[in-house]
Write a structure and sequence with these properties.
Largest sheet: 7 strands, parallel
Shape: globular
Bound molecules: nicotinamide-adenine-dinucleotide
Number of strands: 7
Number of helices: 7
Mean pLDDT: 97
Order of helices and strands: EHEHEHEHEHEHHE
Distance between the termini: 35 Å
Radius of gyration: 18 Å
Helix content: 40-55%
Strand order of the largest sheet: 3-2-1-4-5-6-7
Structural class: alpha/beta
Low-confidence stretches: none
């Protein structure tokens, strides 16, 4: 066996939310593999900038519009993608909406979050996963969070103005981890694998007291950068992981192991 096991060359991969903090780095790393990469999010203008930058490097990247909170939009994207490329080889559910700002955020914001981050994620598995199952192959990688595995660490935020943590995020990221097992079981017999990654915090110039405490809590002594998640995503999309399904893999510098 060779390094070809890890190859995504020529495979059609859809990445949601390809312009955000983690998403931009994932777009760059997936584009570099030689995959046919489709980026999809609500703000297609921002995605088009990413697609243009990647195309200028000779990569195959296109931008598509998607509102994951609207089933008609998910279906329309599925129709466009399937008509042009057939069943996806890989789907990376990375998009997230963060409408709720703290423990006492409005119930309507919680509901809005569920529409995109719970119902919408389920619909992505349904409308793209069924087609993959019909083709008898594929890999879905969900981008969860360590905040789907553990409760809030309030002590990290003392003395900062970083705001309060919202309950919706802990609810849907925890749900994503077990939704992964549901679809891994459903699609497994059709040779479609479904796995969850739980990234740790992304370095974004957070205030010093938080940074120090957070980094001390990891085993590697630092927050994540825009190249830390891509390797695990490429591995789970590729044939190198062909007997791995239904897992949750923390990519957190050891944060949740401590
Ligand atoms: N940033 C972190 O520290 C961190 C830590 C752990 C996990 N994560 C996870 O990583 C993933 C990416 O996070 P990020 O911080 O890069 O996010 P971000 O907020 O920077 O980007 C989110 C992306 O999702 C898209 N999006 C939002 N609502 C949408 C909708 N209704 N339909 C389609 N697209 C929509 C946005 O356009 C944007 O491109 C998320 O799943 C997040 O939960 C992030």
């Amino acid at each position: 066996m060779s390094a070809d096991l890890f190859s995504l060359k020529g495979k059609t991969i859809l990445l949601t939310g390809g312009a955000g903090l983690y998403g931009r780095g994932l777009a760059a790393m997936l584009a570099q593999t030689g995959a046919n990469l489709i980026l999809a999010a609500r703000d297609v203008g921002k995605l088009q900038i990413v697609a243009d930058e990647e195309q200028a490097k000779g990569h195959r990247v296109t931008a598509e519009s998607l509102d994951q909170g609207d089933e008609a939009s998910v279906l329309a994207l599925a129709e466009r993608v399937h008509a042009r490329f057939g069943a996806l080889d890989g789907l990376v559910n990375n998009a997230v909406l963060r409408p709720m700002k703290g423990a006492n955020g409005a119930a309507e914001q919680f509901a809005e979050s569920m529409r995109v981050n719970a119902t919408g994620v389920m619909l992505m598995h349904r409308h793209f996963g069924q087609k993959m199952a019909g083709a008898g192959r594929g890999s879905i990688v969900n981008i969860g969070s360590i905040q789907g595995m553990i409760g809030p660490s309030y002590e990290l935020y003392t003395g900062t103005n970083m705001g309060d943590m919202p309950p919706d995020y802990f609810f849907h990221k925890g749900g994503m981890e077990n939704l992964t097992r549901f679809y891994a079981a459903l699609y497994g017999p059709k040779n479609v694998r479904v796995n969850n990654l739980a990234p740790g915090g992304f370095f974004n110039h957070q205030p010093e007291p938080f940074l120090q405490r957070y980094c001390d809590h990891t085993m590697l002594g630092r927050m994540a950068d825009d190249t830390d998640l891509g390797g695990a995503v490429i591995f789970l999309l590729s044939d190198a992981s062909r007997y791995i399904t239904g897992v949750n893999l923390p990519v957190d510098g050891g944060y949740t192991a401590k």
